[in-house]
């Protein structure tokens, strides 16, 4: 699998699937979640509501992932995953790794070959950047998948630098 880092806005990605750093309600929020729903239009939220009604009445659990249409985005699907809120007192790394693994599993189910990820949990959920980047890159590199290319789409230079340094350690 090819891993590429880009600095940019994930809503502009022309790939099979973009991953959303959602929350368990699946009803939208700020950060990348807000941007995806804003640019993707109401079709995404409609499908999230239907998924809640049919499968996730109690919310999508942390570390899990589920796909919807990408609405008006140039991608084909949005894969919504719920990252863990960072805790100083409890090691939640395995849940963050699970977001990447589960997203790739959903991508495989869809037949997606190109997938773009944001830095899950590294914004509002407060995960220290270097650690979030290390978990992201290592997990993706170690996952068995049919996905041929993973793009980490990083919103600012500091996030890009953290991923660049993390990637250097797995190559
Ligand atoms: N493209 C790529 N990355 C982005 C974009 C974008 N358009 N916008 C923000 N980022 P966050 P979290 C970066 O806060 O920490 C929401 O309210 C951002 O700079 O979006 O997992 C959800 O509903 C950061 O590097 O996600 C949840 O409640 C990274 O994306 C909660 O936030 C992740 O930041 C999830 O928090």
UniProtKB/TrEMBL annotation:
Q: InterPro entries from the entry?
A: Macro_dom, Macro_dom-like
Q: Which domain of life is it from?
A: Bacteria
Q: Which Pfam families match?
A: Macro
Q: Source species, please?
A: Actinomadura craniellae
Q: Which PROSITE patterns match?
A: MACRO
PANTHER family associated with the record: GANGLIOSIDE INDUCED DIFFERENTIATION ASSOCIATED PROTEIN 2-RELATED, MACRO DOMAIN-CONTAINING PROTEIN
Protein name, per record: O-acetyl-ADP-ribose deacetylase
Q: Which residues form the Macro domain?
A: 1-171
């Amino acid at each position: 699998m090819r891993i590429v880092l880009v600095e940019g806005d994930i809503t502009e990605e022309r790939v099979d699937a973009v991953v959303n750093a959602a929350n368990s309600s699946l009803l939208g929020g700020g950060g990348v979640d807000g941007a995806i729903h804003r640019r993707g239009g109401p079709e995404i939220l409609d499908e999230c509501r239907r998924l809640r009604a049919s499968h996730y009445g109690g919310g999508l659990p942390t570390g899990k992932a589920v796909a919807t249409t990408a609405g008006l985005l140039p991608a084909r699907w949005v894969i919504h995953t719920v990252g863990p809120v960072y805790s100083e007192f409890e090691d939640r790394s395995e849940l963050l790794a699970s977001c990447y693994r589960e997203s790739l599993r959903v991508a495989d189910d869809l037949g997606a070959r190109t997938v773009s990820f944001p830095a899950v949990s590294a914004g509002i959920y407060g995960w220290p950047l270097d650690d979030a980047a290390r978990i992201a890159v290592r997990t993706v590199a170690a996952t068995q998948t049919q996905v041929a290319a993973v793009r980490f789409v990083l919103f600012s230079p500091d996030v890009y630098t953290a991923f660049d340094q993390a990637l250097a350690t797995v190559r």
